[in-house]
Design goal:
Blueprint (H helix, E strand, L loop, with lengths): L14 E3 L5 E7 L2 E7 L2 H18 L8 H11 L6 H18 L9 H14 L4 H20 L32 H11 L5 H10 L3 H6 L5 E2 L4 E4 L2 E4 L4 E4 L8 E4 L2 H13 L1 H4 L20 H19 L8 H14 L4 H8 L4 H21 L8
Helix pairs in contact: 2-3, 3-4, 3-5, 6-11, 7-9, 7-12, 12-14, 13-14
């Protein structure tokens, strides 16, 4: 049948067919597991031989390898199986605890040493409590891998309890908070002269993530049917940014465009005329910086800060700090207040778990309970 993917014959031991059609071959060499990826068995065999040569040159025996050395091996081994931005984030967290446990041999690491390192990070205030919890979770994941690799028999982090996060407001109530309709009107008034005005309006009118908006191309926009296709996102990597698929399957979605979103896109097309003239390339970015180059998502928060500073100085008001994510939260809040079904909102936001949507949904509904209860017609009088 045309277009049907041809299935391979039964795969030899150690081989697995990936979703992209490539072969993955897993093997153990010198006590450690490795994976190679190729289009054919021959390519996998060549890559396996090359990997064994690399191991022979720099192999460190299980009993001698340190936490730092093993972390580097583990990170390198995850390339191709996790997003590059994920590896970078974990590596950044690892650098915070590495001075405390990096020199210790993997086989000798004890729970007490991890607890001591955690206490030292808390004392030094290297980062927030939640981040420290994530760091310990990363170490635990690393130790699970060490058990699988036969370096040690148990995971020393298994019984470590998370630190309690005290007196910390949820992000939705601080820099990621949704803004009211009145605040939205005031914010857009002072954003009107910003190069990123259309982008900010688009975020407010669609609820897409800033990385998703930064990755949009004109080929993703269907003006005729009023739909935008979200298929990729901009993520930060070691040097600069990269465009990747969304983290989860739910992130790939079609979003119907509101009149505000359509108007923002049409105005953006006109704005880009200063770079391209009358013909905008279909493979060009929808939103760019002031030079016509790709947007760095982190810089949008800086643009928002400048707008708020101008607003506060002119209006004499203390407009609380918000981020680009606040505009996504604002869209979700307006949708809930308008009576949108949680499942529909989940799909529009690209949440993989309905619990994420319901958490937001319940929060918004708490704020509107009094209004909603007052509308109930109980059908009797006392």
């Amino acid at each position: 049948m045309s277009g049907t993917k041809k299935k391979r014959a039964k795969l030899p031991r150690g081989y697995k067919e990936r979703a992209d059609g490539r072969l993955e071959y897993r093997f153990t060499y010198e006590g450690k597991r490795y994976s190679v990826y190729g289009s054919t068995y021959k390519e996998c065999e060549e890559l396996t031989a090359r990997k064994k040569e690399e191991v022979d040159k720099g192999y460190i025996k299980n009993k001698d390898i340190t936490m730092s050395q093993y972390f580097q091996e583990w990170t390198a081994g995850r390339k191709g199986t996790v997003r590059e931005s994920t590896n970078i984030t974990v590596s950044q967290r690892w650098r915070r605890i590495e001075p405390y446990i990096g020199h210790i041999k993997v086989i000798e690491l004890e729970a007490r040493q991890v607890l001591r390192a955690r206490a030292a990070m808390v004392e030094a205030e290297v980062c927030c409590t939640s981040e420290i919890n994530r760091i310990v979770t990363d170490v635990s994941t690393l130790m699970k891998s060490a058990v699988l690799d036969g370096i040690r028999e148990t995971n020393p982090c298994k019984g470590i309890k998370r630190l309690q996060v005290k007196d910390r407001k949820p992000a939705r109530e601080t820099n990621h908070r949704a803004i009211s309709t009145k605040e939205t009107e005031l914010f857009l008034k002072y954003a009107e002269n910003s190069w990123y005005y259309e982008l900010l309006c688009f975020l407010l009118a669609t609820g897409v993530r800033i990385g998703e908006a930064a990755a949009l191309m004109w080929s993703d926009v269907d003006f005729k049917n009023g739909i935008v296709h979200i298929t990729k996102t901009v993520s930060r990597i070691r040097v600069g940014n990269t465009v990747e698929p969304p983290k989860t399957r739910a992130g790939i979605r079609k979003i119907p465009l509101t009149p505000q979103a359509l108007k923002a896109l049409r105005r953006q097309k006109e704005r880009l005329g200063i770079f391209y003239g009358d013909i905008i390339p279909i493979d060009g970015r929808v939103f760019t910086d002031t030079r016509g180059l790709d947007i760095v998502p982190a810089r949008i928060d800086g643009a928002i800060d400048r707008i708020i500073k101008k607003l506060s100085a002119t209006e004499g008001s203390n407009f609380e700090h918000i981020s680009a994510h606040s505009l996504r939260a604002t869209f979700a809040t307006r949708a809930i207040e308008s009576g949108m079904n949680p499942k529909t909102l989940q799909e529009l936001l690209g949440h993989s778990d309905i619990a994420m949507t319901m958490n937001l949904y319940a929060h918004v509904m708490d704020d509107t309970k009094v209004t909603e209860v007052s509308r109930i017609n109980l059908g009797f009088v006392i």
